[in-house]
Recover the amino acids of this structure.
């Protein structure tokens, strides 16, 4: 037995020497100018004879083809090591370790070549290393079972970090792309084969974090697309299996809810942190990839976490508070950093948009409907005041969104809608004290926005103000219709006459159109006049769908008289303001 090992060792040493000699000869072919530095290659080039015609050598033959041959020999060495391991001459784990060391050796050669300025040689060394190590990890994990999930992840992350570090150090984008694609494909494939969702999803998150780190140096920016796709799909698959009604499918382990939550939240944190580093620290403009990927990360990561929390009932307050914290951080970044920089408008819009989405989602998960309504009303009036104070259309828009969400959470929109749409028999949504508070806040917010608007404001600056005005008008019309219906029959319900209920609503809409036209013309409020014709259009549609089918001659006379009077009077009320602006 000792003789056998001695013989095998001698043979391996001979193979190593031969490979080394072949590599040296290929290097001389690749860099023929070495002869000018006094280096001779025995047996490769005969001395030039005087008067002999020099035969030009193709750069492809002397360079790239030689490098391809060297790469194939590197792969041959890997297969030799595998053959020795399968023959039982080396323990299996020792063979795997040897393969990893062998791949790392080629990365070392790539680093040396890049340091000498031999870029093409370094790239081919990196190709050889990747073609050796990633199939090795795949096969030893799936076929031989020598590496468990944890061992496979450790090996993947180690070789990926080494390859990406080499690419970062020498600005070798080709090696970064090769390692990125191979690393993501191998990790995602192992996730599908082993069904260890959380383990390999976490590995993909680490790979994505390393790629984002290189992106800070503007290296491999295009590589972010496939890496992000892989990690997005992995997180999505993990979340969908976690909320599967029948539990995990056969062959999948039972998922831990805290681990799934951590994986889901890590996705938006990763990409929000990356974009913050690029835009705030390095003063880069937001790229299309970052806008799209942050939207996907928030939707898949945070949105998926919300589904898991609602499905399991775990960590509701913690996840909601986390969403509010992220939203506050985005707002702080937008105003503390971006607002003060020239040419960063797109960055500002991106930060504030995601801040609003995270704030809405976090509050919805963390708070009950009444508390949500009060919080959103407070945020709405604050955003309206800040938008008017600093002349920010974005903040005014956020104020409108928050106020609309508050009205919905308080039941105010539903109560107003029933006043305009519910039948004589109901059901009628009751108005709550929280709804009254939200309605008053909406009125005050419109007053703040109207006072902050200038006469020469552009149309887009008036859009948020018009939105708040429409919200107030809808609430006012709905509550007025409720009150008028109650006056007709002392209380809304089955005793209310359907014909006169329809007529009362027509009266409310006609009066609303008249009030908007008068106030807009009287005080020069263009956003109020924008609402006149939509209200008249709704009134005309209502005449066709409700008054005519439900009405009687007397009620129809009143309805047509009121609606016709509104059509006649409103253009004349607005005409004076139109002439004044002209």
């Amino acid at each position: 037995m000792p003789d056998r090992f001695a013989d095998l060792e001698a043979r391996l040493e001979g193979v190593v020497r031969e490979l080394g000699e072949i590599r040296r000869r290929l290097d001389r072919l690749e860099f023929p100018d070495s002869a000018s530095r006094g280096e001779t290659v025995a047996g490769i080039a005969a001395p030039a004879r005087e008067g002999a015609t020099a035969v030009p050598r193709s750069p492809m033959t002397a360079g790239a083809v030689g490098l391809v041959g060297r790469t194939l020999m590197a792969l041959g060495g890997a297969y030799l090591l595998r053959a020795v391991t399968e023959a039982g001459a080396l323990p299996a784990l020792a063979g795997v370790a040897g393969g990893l060391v062998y791949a790392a050796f080629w990365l070392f050669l790539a680093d040396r070549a890049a340091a000498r300025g031999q870029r093409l040689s370094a790239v081919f060394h990196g190709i050889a290393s990747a073609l050796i190590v990633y199939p090795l990890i795949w096969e030893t994990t799936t076929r031989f079972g020598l590496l468990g999930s944890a061992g496979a992840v450790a090996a993947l992350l180690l070789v990926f970090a080494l390859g990406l570090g080499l690419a970062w150090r020498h600005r070798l984008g080709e090696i970064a792309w090769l390692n990125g694609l191979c690393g993501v494909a191998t990790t995602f494939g192992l996730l599908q084969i082993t069904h260890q969702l959380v383990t390999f999803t976490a590995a993909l998150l680490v790979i994505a974090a390393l790629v984002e780190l290189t992106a800070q140096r503007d290296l491999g920016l295009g590589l972010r697309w496939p890496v992000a796709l892989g990690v997005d799909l992995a997180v999505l698959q993990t979340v969908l299996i976690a909320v599967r009604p029948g539990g995990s499918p056969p062959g999948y382990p039972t998922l831990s809810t805290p681990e799934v939550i951590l994986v889901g939240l890590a996705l938006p944190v990763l990409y929000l942190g990356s974009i913050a580093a690029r835009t705030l620290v390095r003063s880069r403009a937001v790229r299309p990839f970052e806008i799209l990927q942050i939207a996907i990360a928030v939707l898949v990561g945070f949105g998926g976490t919300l589904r898991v929390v609602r499905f399991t009932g775990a960590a509701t307050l913690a996840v909601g508070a986390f969403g509010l914290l992220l939203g506050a951080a985005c707002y702080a970044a937008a105003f503390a950093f971006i607002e003060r920089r020239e040419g960063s408008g797109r960055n500002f819009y991106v930060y504030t948009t995601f801040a609003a989405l995270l704030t809405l989602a976090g509050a919805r998960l963390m708070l009950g409907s009444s508390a949500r309504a009060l919080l959103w009303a407070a945020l709405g009036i604050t955003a309206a005041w800040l938008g008017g104070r600093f002349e920010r259309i974005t903040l005014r828009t956020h104020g409108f969104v928050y106020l609309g969400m508050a009205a919905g959470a308080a039941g105010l929109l539903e109560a107003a809608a029933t006043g305009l749409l519910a039948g004589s028999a109901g059901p009628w949504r009751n108005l709550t004290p929280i709804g009254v508070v939200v309605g008053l806040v909406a009125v005050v917010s419109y007053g703040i926005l109207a006072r902050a608007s200038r006469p020469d404001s552009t149309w887009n600056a008036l859009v948020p103000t018009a939105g708040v005005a429409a919200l107030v008008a809808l609430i006012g019309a709905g509550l007025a219709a409720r009150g008028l219906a109650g006056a007709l029959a002392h209380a809304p319900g089955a005793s209310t006459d359907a014909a006169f209920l329809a007529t009362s609503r027509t009266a409310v809409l006609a009066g609303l159109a008249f009030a908007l036209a008068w106030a807009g013309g009287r005080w020069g409020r263009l956003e109020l006049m924008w609402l006149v014709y939509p209200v008249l259009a709704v009134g005309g549609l209502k005449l066709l769908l409700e008054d005519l089918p439900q009405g009687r001659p007397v009620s129809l006379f009143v309805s047509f008289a009121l609606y016709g009077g509104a059509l006649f009077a409103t253009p004349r009320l607005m005409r004076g303001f139109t002439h004044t602006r002209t």
The radius of gyration is 36 Å. The chain is about 80% helix and 0% strand.
